[in-house]
Amino acid sequence: RSGETFIYSVAFITVEELAESLKSEKGKLHPIKCDISKESEIKEAFQWARKNLGRVDILVNNAAVATCNSLIDDSIENWKAILETNVLGLSICTKEALQIMKDNAVDDGHIIHINSDLGHRPPGYIYVMYSASKHAVTVLTEGLRRELIKQNSKIRVTSLSPGLVKTEMPDKIYLDTLPSLNPKDVADACLYILGTPPHVQVHELMILPI
């Protein structure tokens, strides 16, 4: 939308290449390197946005870590990586974005948490800690929505929960044997959410492959 600044917390893609491919399009994509598991780097990224772009209107929390983990045999380091990125990183990014929105009197912003269908059902015997982190995202989305309502804010919050997506994250064996979504399907869902009129809030959108 015209006049708005977008911040994407992104993992597993080359943002520089994407920015280069968009040179002929309207607007500009600024590739900013940021480790979502490190609070200092998150704050630096948002400080850059505040200084160079002035404001934030939309935040898409997309970065995530997943390992085929076991609660019996997996390493604590793997657990920390999942929780620091999927839960704490998401929360810090949200906090920083909301502060900039508040400072600029942005009352029609939108925050989208890229969740997972695993955040809405009991886990199997693998990806258990990842599933737990996505259940946390489900709770954090609703908790933030209620806090904003209490403040009479019109900033909207949405949880977007895809099924299996063709990215570098899932184990290749699943991508070879199970139906999966394309990354563009998730991007199109984001555009749908952002395209709804101001009086419409999409609380939860789940998209699954056929």
From TrEMBL:
The keyword Protein biosynthesis does not apply. GO terms for molecular function: oxidoreductase activity. Keywords: Oxidoreductase. Pfam families: adh_short. InterPro entries: NAD(P)-bd_dom_sf, Sc_DH/Rdtase_CS, SDR_fam. The keyword Nucleus does not apply. It comes from the Eukaryota. Signal peptide: none annotated. Belongs to the short-chain dehydrogenases/reductases (SDR) family. This is Dehydrogenase/reductase SDR family member 11. It comes from Diploptera punctata.
